[in-house]
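Researcher: Structure for this, please.
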Amino acid sequence: MTSNPRIYALDTNVLMHDPTALFKFEEHDVFLPMTVLEELDANKKGMSEASRNARQVSRFINELIEANGTDGIATGLRLRRPDGLQLRTAERSGVLLFQTSAADPKRSFGKVAPDNQILSAILALSEERSDREVVLVSKDINLRIKAHIAGLPAEDYENDRALDDFNLLYTGANALPENFWERHEKDLRSWTERGHSFYEVQRLPDENWHPNQFLYLPGAEELEFRVTRINGDNGVLQVIDDFRSHGHQVWGISARNREQNFALNALMDPDVDFVTLLGTAGTGKTLLALAAGLAQTMDQQRYREIIMTRATVSVGEDIGFLPGTEEEKMTPWMGALTDNLEVLTHTPQEGGAWGRAATNDLLASRIKIRAMNFMRGRTFLNRYVIIDEAQNLSPKQMKTLLTRAGPGTKMICLGNVEQIDTPYLTETTSGLTYAVDRFKHWPHSAHITLRRGERSRLADFASEAL
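Model: Predicted structure, token format:
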């Protein structure tokens, strides 16, 4: 194979997932079969994210035609936008090629289906440009399998990955070496401020800490810290609160393990505006977020109300259209809220059933359920916003939600990346993964990966055995 630039043939789902994909192949050329343009046209109507992306791709192509002229269609349109959107700076930018002739009917695969027509067009181009490597880029695994069978190189679209390997994702908590004090005995400075102990140390090369990262000393000392500041080579560690004792509960909830204690410290800190909690089912993500929200909304009155939303993606068959108001339509999706409110309000009360009913009515007036569809254009002031099932959001949807935050608002994203139900999203391309990776250097955000389930022995065994 020669060292000539490649030709990347894009499938429709790549462009509907990321409309800027046209400009992300540096010096290589991009090829669009006619079937892809037809599928973009068929999917342009509607208000979904995919429909908006389809319309944006059409606008990009139209801009390129206007900038290059129709005479350039035969030789290729230079992939440089008039407004300078060159997402990867390269000395040479490739060209956009189109399918300008009908595919040979003898080269058909099975029945006449769009995927087979795309494959036929790419194979024809591969034979025509035998001096260049033609690669299919698709998020459809079945089309990639067909391409491999036909002898055509095929790849997944990886440009939108937040990181190459999900196991490398920032966890938010690290163990300190047992000889931590000995390593820093010469440069250690300590003081007490507002009831908290602080330690300033000179960071060693292997101590690559991030703001609001949680650190703990294993063994007999069992000290737990939070990185409050990083000043060049120096790091300031604060001894965190212990929410595991019954005397220091959050709305009647105690932390049951180290990670839950870290999470409650982040959720209760007014200086942290954005918290992400990752964890499998039963690790307590929703319960902790809701308890911290109620404590700060009802008791401390730091926030005016709690707003809860989630991506409405079904696990099984859809339940169809739902009657009622926005809140009533969202109620079936909010089983996690209902279940956790039962835990938080299930305490002996003097008022008996009447007292519990009054408490539930009071809480309901301060907790609002909102649909994600109507978030665009809104601004939340002094609100405590919980975004549940955030693993089903794309990076663009995550940005849309996080930019709704006004002054005094705290955003909490909860999710389990092992339960992604949105087509074409993976662990490495989920908006939740994207947010964790991009916010880890920001001093007003915190992240914790919860590892230990706290539901029941049945749930723990089911997670391991099934």
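Researcher: Any notable elements?
Model: The first strand starts at residue 7 and ends at 10. The chain has three domains: 7-155, 167-239, 258-465.
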